[in-house]
Design a protein that fits this description.
The protein is built from 8 helices and 2 strands; from the N terminus they run αααααααβαβ. It has helices spanning 2-13, 17-33, 37-45, 49-60, 66-72, 75-91, 96-114, 122-126, and strands spanning 116-117, 137-138. The chain is globular and about 35 Å long.
């Protein structure tokens, strides 16, 4: 299931499957650190997604402590996570155009494959500034 998801994102973005996998892991790690509902939905529905996010988080040196996670869920912390996300994707070798195609590709693939919808751009994947107003929906 995860491999098919990675393959779809790879095709939509023009990234190799290895790069797409790493990019998805970085995005999921950032979404998880912010407590975004999208990450919870993906982890629940896609075996291996949580492991991919944790592996990439370890590779990029993402914070893992409880206090860091609490800080990353504040408004300033959210901004820092987004900035770091873009830096990490650039360090992975993605250009602005590829990053711009990555989020809609993740959105489309997650809706088709897993029924997770309401995710179309960076802000949706990482969560609204107010978690209570997230538009992420899933078909159970």
């Amino acid at each position: 299931m995860l491999n098919a998801f990675i393959s779809e994102v790879s095709k939509a973005t023009g990234l190799t499957e290895d790069k797409a996998s790493e990019a998805i892991g970085i995005v999921l790690n950032a979404a998880d650190r912010q407590g975004a509902p999208f990450a919870d939905e993906m982890f629940e529905r896609v075996p291996g997604a949580r492991t991919l996010a944790a592996t990439m988080g370890s590779q990029i040196g993402a914070p893992t402590g409880v206090l860091a996670r609490l800080i990353e869920r504040t408004q300033g912390g959210r901004q820092a996570v987004v900035e770091r996300l873009i830096e990490d994707l650039h360090e992975l070798g993605l250009g602005s155009n590829q990053i711009g195609r990555l989020f809609p590709a993740i959105s489309k693939s997650s809706e088709i494959a897993f029924g997770v919808s309401g995710v179309g751009h960076l802000g949706d994947i990482l969560g609204a500034l107010s978690v209570n107003q997230s538009g992420v929906r899933s078909v159970a």
